[in-house]
Design a protein that fits this description.
Two copies of one chain form a homodimer. Chain A is mainly α. Chain A contains 34 helices and twelve strands. Chain A has a four-stranded mixed beta sheet with strand order 6-7-8-9. A three-stranded mixed beta sheet of chain A has the order 10-11-12. In chain A, strands 1-2 form a two-stranded antiparallel sheet. In chain A, strand 11 and strand 12 form a beta hairpin. In chain A, helix 10 packs antiparallel against helix 19 and helix 17 packs antiparallel against helix 18. At the A-B interface, helix 2, helix 4, helix 10, strand 3 and helix 11 of A face helix 2, helix 4, helix 10, strand 3 and helix 11 of B.
């Protein structure tokens, strides 16, 4: 079973060209996996608890030695000597005492700061090497071109290949996956050491190539990986590191650390990670993020100081804008324009990115070709991009010489590049010179830069390497802001302020605003505002930035999903869409409008045949357990796997062998009492007869049990599954273990089991089939079955809004709808998603129009409730003992 | 009933000397109120929904006229003419279409910015007036003193008196109340127009007096008031403004606006309000806060520009620190020291504040005296504080001349006041001169300022006027930071940096760090860091500030609750304490350890007497409805009020009169058929006999119904309530309507009902009592009863951690614990609070030690489950019809 389980457990991850895609089953798989983990977690919890108690008791100063025998599970083998026990215990004691959250967060921060710094350092070396090669070959343009182009192609190809081989899950940003994981879905492969290595090395190579790729998203993933691995490592020392909800809290903190140590922006990091990954945020976890991110950012910057890159701790992209008069009130419209334009731009970017993926996926021929030669696509894209940025070529018109970081530094420069429309002949020191072209205006350079980088970034982020899109978008936004700023500066050379003093316009400020607005629009976050303040070290433009970011968000959110949500859809990760803003219909849709009324259920007194039917006709992961088909009182829910094991126990070979043994014993007894035949033989024959009668009756498949009175339509139709039951009557010869085979198709160990056993299996196929039919008619014994005794329940009139809140708060994937204890429907993530998308995709066809919920539910449903209640009550009355006052009641009525 | 209801609805708010206190009932009251609102909300929801639909349909362009008759509820009277209908409809259409969230938030932001600016303006005028009086009388010190002292005393006394008379709820900060409201408890009186007026005017006067009071807390409250009133106003135009969950969302946004427009700090405002008021935060509401707070902060600062106070939009307390080298790495230990010291200081402040309140409350004599002369306490405190700050007196040693704002500006100054320990003779321009004293060192002045202001602020915030404590604490923190900074500057006159360049230490930076750290420690928030950046307009000190704030929080949170939580406890508001950090025992306590096992319940087939018993012996607000006492299957919960009305219907006068009427008819019939006496008369006598027999049997109070088999201990014992049932048998003469009277003591309309009615009530007291006994024995008809069909359920093994999460997420006040549908316990806020506090108040006695949950729940409880399930199953089998395969089953076993 274990081997099979782990085989099945391999994620059904389909490696496609760019992002990779999940076969439809992922949602189902993930839930199964989550359930499995939960179950094993529950099993572990007992030992967990006793272990913690152990620690607490140890604290009271008892001798470790005398307790050694009582806790053998700590030791791998009894051969361990006394000293090692003591050491382990002391370590555990220390770790459990000194506030393990702190230690964990500090370790995480430290680790991530180191990783971030090392990655940055390697990237810088890579980029320097490229520049050095390019510079050294300045005698021959062709050689220069070759060097310029080959270098990134090699790096990207290596990165893509390495990632594909080691861990294909490391591809892309990682934020969508983290969002899904924090939503409660377990994507185990995303948090392994392999993925960590692949992501770090792949990211370094990808960014070292100088392509327009970002580091933020991968860092969120890397930090989460770090946290998961660290957690696993710490759990070796015992303590509470195995608690699942604690791990989720730590993962949330890790996301903050990822952003924080990437930009040295602790506050922005925390906020960004919250906005990007969470739906509901527990304020009590807030401090974790702040603590870890601050520590991480601090170490990250201290490393720079120690490395003599900086004199002291300052911002990453320090600006030096005027403090006394950062901007004039009358410049605000220009900032608002940046915001709105960025909103459209951001939506366009997301759309373009998705379009590229979908286009290449749809072109079957291209797709098939590229799938065969996996590394061709990255190489081709890199070739195209780097050819276009070749500085002596087209790159001269778009500052192609500059790396991403250099471009950003120059764009945030606090001097004005242009005056009166002509590039001013100021001292273009350092990198700023790249923006100046002898023939072409600065404006043209900027426009070309924006346009080219825009599609290049959208294209580059589809390459299957670990990469994010935040930084490229940030740079494009800064360039756009700069463009507007330079235009304003050209338009008002002496500034706008009218009262005497001349305050010239600062185009750098516009660049800051643009960067925040465009990145905010693409990611649908407001906290990019905070990130730019922390990145630039100046907060003087707070109001323009906030206004632009909010406007950009308003525009972008009404046009497109965020980049991360878009990728979630492309990757088909299980998700729950957000409720849009301002769509107040959500307050009017009720659960009764969206719920599935045909609930698959099993009753407390059902027999195994019912179980079999339910399992064969549907493939829901959990089934409702109701008291009886008449009362429909919800008692709990049972997982499919539990039912399968119940059924396999009932129909399995061990049970049949036992039956054979028993029959043999009975036969022997019959033979031994053959001397006095008569009554005994007669009873035997009668029972035989009865049995046959029943089995033939049952094989006609016309059960008259109350359960089957309501024909159960499968909630999720699937032809392949629905057709199966019909196979049974058509091939009665092949009936041996057919029920089991239907359930565990392609499970080899069922066959394996049939081979062992010391009792000879002399039953004919017909006998087996009879025996199985008989077994199926027994009532189910739920004693050894794990029942979830309190599945989540909703009421018919719960609004969609509230349902969404509850689902996302508690990470549910389904909830039963009950009315006074009676099961009347079920709502799963799927229905909810449909309902939300139906009402969000505006105006047109709604899945359930608001009219559907327009019935006087206030009166009719309460009446319903009353009658249903009445039924229950009547039923109860009929079965309860006659009470002493019943005559008086009837008496009174007769009066 | 309505009159009575509104009488009862008056909040049981006990006006005490300082904060006001709630009689213990508040929690109960609030829940009742919440239930009432919810119910009325449900009733409204139908019309709400049809109204919205109306709008949607209207959109399709039908004529408004022809639909006029169909929607009469829109019109107040049929006399309204066609034009007004059109106008109203157009308005409604516009409002419902143009994205009402935006409009609402913009209006809110605008309003709050105006309020904030006007309040600031008035405060500034008040303070100027005081200065002018003080300055004009410089010939005579005594007159100067009188003026200096009288002015604040008059203002504070007026503020206290005005608030007391108009709306005592306006006293204090308002943040604790908002926290409670956002937690889901309805405190209606806190959001009325009266409170708004009282708060705004009271606050202006209180701050105008120059006492060390803050404006932040009250502004959170004022913004929420604004939002509530605006919501009410907008609901006049129809639309979705009546939706409760939407209102909560808007209140959360309003809190952000309050902080945002107070400090012109949109980001900090949003974060601070989240940290201070929420436990779980919905990221989808994030934008609301940002949008409204940004708009509000923008307008607030634009007003300053228009008023020519400022040239352009800048920070409120702009600093001008060096950008290139804000601090050296080696200064970080000093910042850490500030953080830790601030942590202790913050905890001390909270403790001191609570101590003062509790001290005065305990001193009965003082308390009684001060309660009589309510305005004496504020006047005395003001007199004391203003005497000590009198500039020619003691005030000269503590810069008493400066207002709060002036002190803060001087403390954040970027020049160094002292070098080598001696006050440097630099040009003390403007207000900075106040810190310089001819005889006394600057250090002494600062120390005196800190010490004096510390207790003064703690004392002043207990005055019953609208006031906050944030700003005073902020100033004290800045002074402490300045002290450390000046010391550092004196210690290292040439700065710490070793590499050639001299970078002198900036004491102003230390002041920023100190301010953030101390205010963070008092309020238990990290976002004060963001607030200081926004207030000063500089973010260069981000790392020191973050480090200091986090350290301060760590220290303060481990010592004391936050100031707001402390006030919540003082005011006895219903609250749920936070889970502390690092206490991993919470993961080990289970619901089964804290739940109340004696659940009060009613069964589906109970009779009215059971209802009466349950109602008399307990006072829980909701009661569980189970199927029967044997099965204990939870069907739902019923509110107490519903049961009371059921009982009153059954025992009420109308029913009795009906009975009399019926009896009279029967009597008449008997008289008319007197001609043929015999069988009819006999049956009548028999029925009479039976009735008497039952009623006497019942009056002995020995019910043998299954419900009473388990004696129900009241979950919340209260002698006055428990004693009541014994009254019934002792005074059988007074039995008329006694059951009702017991339930509705002091409800006048029950008496009023007795007076009308056309049938003569000729029943004797004995007859009435008999009739009532008879009525009580009837089975309850739940048809007209509102049942909550899906109360929240937990499982025995749910951890405390998860329970806390669910309670705070969903704002529950109780949850039933079920095991496979069977009710086995109940957990209310009270138990949860006890358990958390027990485990949080460290080490000592825990309410339920972790050991309590150390039983092998993994095995035993599942066994339990199984046996319980078995019972259910057996029961079900016995009542279900014999099935056709049962013989085969038994047959097989016999084999």
């Amino acid at each position: 079973m274990a081997g099979d389980g782990s085989d099945q457990r391999a994620l059904q991850y389909e490696q496609t060209l760019m992002y990779g895609r999940y076969t439809q089953e992922l949602g189902v798989y993930a839930k199964e996996e989550a359930a499995r983990l939960r179950e094993s977690g529950q099993r572990r919890s007992v030992s967990d608890r006793s272990r913690t108690l152990d620690l607490l008791e140890y604290d009271k100063g008892r001798c470790a030695k005398c307790r050694r025998l009582g806790y053998p599970y700590v030791l791998d083998a009894p051969a361990h000597d006394f000293i090692s026990v003591c050491t382990v215990r002391c370590q555990k004691f220390l770790i459990s005492r000194v506030g393990e959250d702190w230690i964990f967060l500090i370790l995480l921060g430290l680790l991530m700061a180191l990783v971030s710094w090392v990655v940055d350092f390697c990237i810088a070396i890579c980029l320097q090497a490229q520049k050095w090669m390019y510079g050294g070959l300045d005698s021959n343009v062709f050689l220069q071109y070759l060097a310029w182009v080959t270098y990134p192609v090699v790096l990207i190809t290596f990165s893509a290949g390495f990632t594909q081989i080691l861990a294909p899950q490391a591809v892309g940003s990682g934020i969508p996956e983290m969002k899904t994981i924090l939503r409660g879905v377990v994507l185990k492969e995303y948090l392994t050491f392999k993925t960590f290595v692949a992501k770090v090395i792949g990211l370094t190579c990808a960014l070292g190539s100088g392509m327009p790729l970002g580091k933020e998203g991968p860092f969120v993933h890397i930090a989460s990986l770090c946290a998961a691995l660290l957690s696993k490592f710490m759990s070796l020392f015992g303590g509470i590191y195995e608690n699942e909800s604690r791990n989720i809290e730590m993962l949330a903190a890790a996301c903050a650390v990822g952003v924080g140590c990437c930009f040295a922006a602790p506050i922005g990091g925390v906020l960004f990670s919250i906005e990007v990954t969470s739906t509901f945020f527990a304020v009590r976890n807030y401090w974790r993020g702040f603590f870890a991110a601050t520590f991480s950012a601090f170490i990250f910057r201290v490393l720079a100081v120690w490395n003599r890159d900086e004199e002291t701790i300052t911002a990453l992209f320090k600006t030096r804008f005027r403090l006394d008069f950062p901007f004039d009130l009358q410049e605000l419209p220009a900032f608002a324009v940046i915001g709105i334009a960025s909103g459209f731009g951001g939506a366009l970017f997301v759309y373009l990115n998705r379009l590229i993926v979908q286009f290449i996926r749809k072109q079957k021929a291209i797709n098939r070709f590229l799938m065969k030669k996996r590394l061709l696509y990255p190489a081709l894209v890199t070739l195209l991009v780097s050819t276009l940025t070749f500085p002596p070529g087209f790159g001269q018109f778009m500052a192609g010489k500059l790396t991403q970081k250099e471009s950003l530094v120059t764009l945030l420069d606090n001097r004005t590049w242009a005056k009166q429309g002509i590039a001013e002949e100021f001292d273009y020191i350092g990198h700023s010179q790249a923006w100046k072209h002898p023939q072409v205006n600065v404006f043209v350079t900027l426009v070309l830069f924006i346009v080219m980088k825009f599609w290049m970034s959208a294209l580059a982020t589809t390459i299957p390497v670990p990469c994010g899109a935040f930084m490229p978008v940030f740079v494009i936004g800064a360039a756009f802001g700069r463009l507007v700023g330079e235009s304003m500066a050209a338009w008002f050379p002496d500034g706008i302020h009218t009262d005497g003093t001349i305050y010239p316009i600062v185009p750098g400020g516009y660049a800051v605003v643009g960067a925040a607005a465009l990145s905010g629009a693409v990611t649908h976050t407001v906290s990019t505002a905070v990130i730019v303040f922390e990145l630039t070290g100046q907060i003087s433009h707070i109001l323009p930035v906030m206004i632009a970011v909010i406007l950009a968000n308003a525009v972008a959110q009404s046009l497109q999903p965020s980049l991360y949500d878009s990728i979630i859809r492309i990757k088909k990760l299980p998700y729950l869409p957000e409720l849009g803003w301002g769509h107040h219909e959500k307050y009017n849709i009720r659960v009764e409008d969206i719920m599935v009324r045909d609930v698959r259920y099993i009753t407390l007194n059902c027999c195994y045949r019912d179980l079999q039917n339910v399992l064969l006709t549907g493939h829901l992961k959990t089934l409702a357990l109701v008291e009886s088909a008449e009362s429909m009182i919800l008692l709990g829910s049972i997982e499919r796997a539990q039912l399968q094991s119940l059924l396999s126990q009932q129909l399995g070979r061990p049970k049949r062998l036992e039956y054979i043994r028993e029959r043999a014993v009975a036969e022997k007894k019959r033979l031994s009492v053959m001397s006095n035949p008569g009554s005994d033989d007669g009873s035997q024959r009668v029972s035989q007869e009865v049995r046959f009668q029943i089995s033939t009756e049952e094989s006609t498949f016309s059960p008259v049990r109350p359960v089957a009175l309501k024909p159960l339509k499968p909630a999720l139709k699937r032809s392949s599954v629905v057709e199966r039951p019909t196979e049974i009557p058509t091939s009665p010869q092949d009936n041996s273990g057919i029920a089991l085979k239907n359930l565990f198709c392609a499970s080899p160990e069922t066959e394996g089991l049939e081979d062992d056993g010391d009792v000879e299996d002399d039953m004919t196929i017909r006998e087996i089939s009879e025996w199985e039919e008989m077994q199926l008619d027994e009532q189910v014994n739920f004693n050894n079955c794990k029942i979830d005794p309190a599945p989540f329940q909703l009421v018919e009139r719960t609004s969609l809004h509230k349902t969404h809140t509850i689902f996302s708060l508690l990470g549910l994937d389904h909830a039963y709808v009950t009315s006074i204890g009676r099961l009347i429907g079920v709502v799963s993530l799927k229905e909810l998603r449909k309902a939300i998308e139906g009402s969000v995709t505006v105006k047109g066809v709604k899945v359930r129009p608001p009219l559907a919920s327009f019935r006087d539910s206030g009166t009719s449903s309460s009446e319903n409730e009353a009658t249903e209640l009445h039924k229950l009550w009547d039923r109860h009355k009929s079965m309860s003992l006659p009470r002493e006052h019943t005559p008086s009641e009837s008496d009174e009525k007769s009066q």
